[in-house]
Amino acid sequence: MDSELKCPECNSEHVYQDGSLWICPECAHEWNPQLAAGDASAEASPDQSVKDAHGNVLNDGDSVTVIKDLKVKGSSLVVKGGTKVKGIRLVDAADGHNISCKIDGIGAMNLKSEFVKKA
């Protein structure tokens, strides 16, 4: 941990990192030290947008169509190709499943954007 890093709000030394943000448990302030310092490389990070199988940018609330049959892990269910999913939510997941949605007949699940196309 960086011993010089202090909370910019309350000047507390008891801060911890959560992903790219630093958090102060005393005043609940969250900040990115690279952006606070004006680091240009942090602002010019690569495009973090989520794209479907055809390269279209996806947004929260979009409707998508599954492009191939997908087995549901841990069950005998299958999401058939051509299934339309409404009202997706984009999430940041380390395992590649970056779409959270609800599919009729199956329920809530996460999908990879490479297996859907924008409807």
Automatic annotation (TrEMBL):
Domain Protein YjdM N-terminal span(s) in chain numbering: 6-32
Transmembrane regions listed in the UniProt entry: none
The Protein YjdM C-terminal domain, residue ranges: 50-119
Highest rank taxon of the organism: Bacteria
A Pfam family the protein falls into: Zn_Ribbon_YjdM
Family under the similarity heading: Belongs to the YjdM family.
The protein's name: PhnA protein
Organism: Skermanella aerolata
